[in-house]
Design a protein that fits this description.
Length: about 300
């Protein structure tokens, strides 16, 4: 592989590369790679390798006509492929906005995917890069077949300080802590994943890739609360739309609808055959008392 040879000779050369999928002398990108997973997998590699990513004229729109300096205007009346443009909006443009993470080579490491039988799957591109506190890990299976295995050790690269060939583990290349858990987001599916830092140091990362499947893991953050182990074990490597929402689902207080009870006084049952008792009004009571007093005065005068 050309990237491996360059890393062993001088990693700085990677910054001089111009990465493209087609040029005026070749077939267009959509003719070579189609408009599905293979196209977006190669476009992701193009956008995240060190060097200069270059998109050809009409590539994003999905045009099939070749363009060159000898053509003053297009010969075909083509309409933009809205589905392909939408795929760029979802998968490609967000990582192009984060080019600073992938542009340099000082922290760029290429990894091998070791399958169950111990062999290296040369069809898998796996590499990481770091810029300041931002991390990026890219995976792409460049074959129409499924694969699985572990990513742990980088390919050899030249240490220009000593002149020796060196290798780094995935955890070392990403500057991961030794304990706790790491949460990261896939910019392809927009799902979040959680992994044990201890496992990443000891075993690496286990991955399963379908034909032409790719991932771009970014937005790495670290958590050390012991409760995250429950979420880690429950997901068993699967992704979720929001890890924070998963936390609230398991440990948060669930919102319950509070129904306000209104007590309604029931009317008293009337006794059968009896008239309901009536209460005298205060005015009538006062009048009856005055009548009694007048009667008492008259009898006293007699």
């Amino acid at each position: 592989m050309a990237i491996k040879n360059t890393l062993e000779f001088d990693p700085q050369i990677l910054k001089r590369y111009v990465n493209f999928m087609s040029n005026p002398d070749e077939k267009t990108s959509i003719e070579q790679f189609g408009n599905g997973d293979k196209y977006f997998g190669v476009a992701t590699v193009l956008s995240t390798l060190p060097g200069l990513p270059m998109y050809s004229h009409g590539q994003v729109e999905g045009f099939t006509e070749k363009y060159g300096m000898e053509f003053r205007k297009p010969k075909m009346d083509e309409q933009p492929n809205e589905g392909l443009i939408g795929g760029h909006d979802w998968k490609i443009f967000p990582i192009l906005h984060r080019r600073s993470v992938f542009a340099d080579v000082e922290q760029f490491f290429l990894y091998d995917l070791f399958t169950a039988n111990g062999s290296v799957d040369e069809n898998v591109f796996a590499y990481s890069n770091v810029f300041n506190d931002e991390r990026g890990l890219v995976l792409y299976n460049n074959r129409f077949a499924d694969t699985r295995g572990w990513i742990k050790i980088s390919a050899a690269y030249l240490d220009k300080g000593t002149g020796d060939l060196r290798q780094k583990s995935l955890a070392e290349g990403l500057s991961l802590p030794f304990e706790g858990y790491v949460i990261f987001k896939d910019y392809v599916t927009h799902f979040e994943y959680i992994r044990s830092c201890e496992e990443l140091w000891q075993k690496g990362m286990y991955v399963e890739l379908h034909a032409y499947q790719h991932h771009v893991f970014m937005d790495w953050r670290f958590v050390d609360d012991e409760k995250w182990q429950t979420i880690h074990d429950a997901l068993n490597g699967a992704g979720v739309a929001s890890m924070q929402r998963k936390w609230e689902e398991i440990f948060g207080v669930k919102e319950e609808k509070v129904v306000e009870e209104v007590k309604v006084k029931k009317p008293r049952k009337k006794a059968v055959g009896k008239r309901p008792a009536t209460k005298k009004s205060p005015a009538k009571k006062t009048a009856s008392k005055k009548a009694v007093k007048k009667t008492e005065k008259k009898s006293a005068s007699k």
